[in-house]
Amino acid sequence: MKNRWLVVLAVALIPMSAFCYQDAPAKMTHVIVQMSGTDIPAGSFAEKPKTMWRASNTYCRIDEEPDPAEGLHLRTVMNEPDAWLVDLASHRAKHMVDPGPTFNCRIPIFAFGQKMAKSKIGELEFGHELEFLRKMEHIRSTGRT
Q: Is the Cβ–Cβ distance between 57 and 105 less than 8 Å?
């Protein structure tokens, strides 16, 4: 009897799973970035690499190296509008919901503060470099912002 219900449930869920994955992203961008410069102390946490994944504007993940000085090892996972901040060191997580109105995970290349993140250069994001350059070329050629 149990197996019969399991088969019925599986048969019912197969069409639903195809519907759910209908808009699955066609590609994923994976980057490993590391800051360097004269103002970044050698061996500091700021110098450690960050690993990032992005699939469309909906799915993003950022993994940081452990930060022994702060006792943190952070992972951020976004499945818009949901996001989780996970501390792998303490085994704790915090769930957040994006209030909208747009639901886009963002991974800006230059965002060293809120002001910069909201500026034109803050619009340059990992995985969307070509779109940014095309937009800037359009603005330059038409004179419109």
A: yes
Q: Amino acid identity, residue 96?
A: M
> Residue 64: what residue type?
E
> Which of 49, 60, 51 lies closest to 25, judged by CA?
60
This prediction's pTM: 0.72
**Sole residue written with tokens 């949901």:** 82
CA 51 to chain centre: 10
Residue 87 structure tokens: 């501390």
- Alpha-carbon span 14 to 12, nearest angstrom: 6
Dihedral sign (CA 113, 118, 121, 127): positive
Enumerate the H helices of the chain as residue ranges: 2-20, 114-117, 129-142
Residues 6+ apart with CB under 8 A from 87: 72, 73, 74, 93
pLDDT along the chain (145 residues), means of 10: 42 41 76 91 91 92 95 96 96 94 86 81 87 85 71
Length of the chain: 145
The DSSP call for residue 125 is B
